[in-house]
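Supplementary Methods. Inverse-folding protocol.

Structures were first reduced to a discrete structure-token string of length 146. This string, shown here, constituted the complete conditioning input.
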């Protein structure tokens, strides 16, 4: 990893305690995403359906939300729209992690309030770069523990 890439990663994660909310109903996907994020020093908060994800987002105000689109209780589009309507969460980036890659899916994901998306199956080699692209930079020493 180049020096500038290391510095960029460090500026984004501060003291490596940023909280990332993962809303995912598939146990294997949740395990893999959690494993990768925790290996890189992030605190992971897990939600297994859309409604739980909204409640946890309100409680923990994460630095980033990774959102599956195909969820029980509420689909990811409805979750993103509801999160975007909450002013306290307006600055929290939402990134869809989805197998939806057909024409029009990207536009629909963005229209629901997501900043972008990561295609499934995720690539463990590039996943952290994909995720950190959406994390807000934090002041030195800051960790996202608000």
């Amino acid at each position: 990893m180049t020096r500038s890439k290391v510095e960029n990663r460090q500026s984004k994660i501060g003291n490596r305690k940023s909280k990332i909310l993962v809303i995912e109903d598939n146990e294997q996907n949740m395990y893999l995403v959690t494993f990768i994020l925790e290996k890189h020093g992030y605190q992971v908060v897990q939600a297994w359906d859309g409604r739980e994800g909204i409640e946890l987002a309100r409680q923990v105000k994460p630095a980033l939300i990774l959102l599956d689109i195909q969820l029980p209780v509420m689909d990811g589009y409805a979750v993103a729209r509801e999160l975007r309507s909450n002013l306290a969460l307006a600055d929290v980036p939402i990134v869809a992690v989805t197998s939806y890659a057909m024409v029009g899916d990207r536009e629909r994901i963005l229209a629901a309030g997501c900043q972008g998306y990561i295609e499934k199956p995720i690539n463990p080699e590039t996943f952290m770069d994909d995720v950190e692209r959406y994390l807000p930079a934090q002041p030195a020493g800051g960790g996202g523990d608000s």
